[in-house]
Amino acid sequence: MNIHKLILIRLPAVSTMQSCGMKHFPPPPNYDHIQIPEKSKLKFIDKIPYLAPGIRPPKMQKRLRLMRGPETVHNFLIHKQYGIMALGGGRLKWVHFDMMRLTIGRKMDPERMFAVWRVDPPWQPVTRKGQGQRMGGGKGAIDHYVTPIKSGRIILELGGKCEYKEVEYFLHDVAMKLPFKAMAVSQEIMEKTKAEEKWKEDNNQNYYTMKYVMQNNLGGCHKWMSPFDFKYLGKYL
């Protein structure tokens, strides 16, 4: 027992004191350079394109090429903030335009946010024959109008004095209701995605790329490939 007392006496005294450190919070982003327009909400889209009086509405073919491949023009954000980007080809009807306008108009704050369209109103006519009609008899009457969309097209933009976390949930909600794959994006997400794609292309160690397989007809792939597969290397349908 005495030995234990001597050991305890020889041990150095340890004192604990609770202390708190200084936390560092980054400064909030500055939105002084952003100007909110007078009409901050999305504009109403006409259901039918306007034609001069006396002009008969023209009919068109399907023109699937308007939905195939990547978008090469409207594939960036003008205001460098947030938006909805298409991940595949498809068609937008008037009901989709109205859904986006009403959903975003209800959930956004018009005093410090604004939204703009990046697609044209429905302009391509889609014909349809009545139920029970026989084949033949010419092309049917115009049923409705659509807007063809390519992969990578920016559908709409949303900006203002707000952060991405504030608008992400309802932009994602709108993107999931579209007739094709789409996602909510920001300028940082788009730049990061492009950088990752470029890094993967530069650091690809697989010798048998999709381009090499198609050019050399490995496995007899030329039998079932379409001209669009050769053009877009199997990336777009």
Polypeptide structure, described:
The chain starts with a helix and ends in a 5-residue tail after the last helix. It has six helices and seven strands, in the order H-E-E-H-E-E-E-E-H-E-H-H-H. By secondary structure, it is α+β, with helices and mostly antiparallel strands. The strands form two sheets. A four-stranded antiparallel β-sheet has the order 3-6-1-7.
Which regions have little confidence, pLDDT < 50, spanning 5+ residues? Answer: none
- What integer is the average pLDDT? 90
N/C terminus separation: 85 Å
Summarize the helix and strand pattern as letters.
HEEHEEEEHEHHH
Got a strand count?
Answer: 7
- What class would the helix/strand composition place it in? alpha+beta
Radius of gyration: 29 Å
Strand order of the largest sheet: 3-6-1-7
Element layout with pairings:
Elements: H1 2-10, E1 82-86, E2 90-92, H2 94-107, E3 113-117, E4 124-128, E5 141-149, E6 154-160, H3 164-176, E7 182-186, H4 187-202, H5 210-215, H6 227-232
Antiparallel strand pairs: 1-6, 1-7, 2-5, 3-6, 4-5
